[in-house]
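Bench notes, afternoon.
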Amino acid sequence: MRKKIPVLTMTVFVLALGFAALAEAGGPPARATVWVDGELFGTVVTPAVFDPAHGPFDELYTCGPGGAFKDGVPLISEAKPGDQDYNGGRWHLNVLKEGSECNADADSVEELNLNDFDSTDMYFECPLLPMRGQGRS
């Protein structure tokens, strides 16, 4: 079952991720971080959305506002640039179910219980940018 998240709520959430990253960095551009297979990626926060009926997308997972995965990173993706099945930064958002616990040590989809997440109606585009030298220690 898909969880309906109003576009305004999702926009505010994505912008909050960007503004948090902006505050940390001390200036533009607004970016957030994403774990993929134990590797950190940055992303430029954009308001671009798309119709899921028009092409493939990858799954993105979040604990929602106030929750985070390893090292406080708010998002985990199932695919990254260079993966054969990566769809170029087209995402479908999945949010941790109410009452489920966020795995604060997770840095890959394999470390998540995907049954703990609700599918949403949010589909958006933003690129993943490698952050060299950062990842599993």
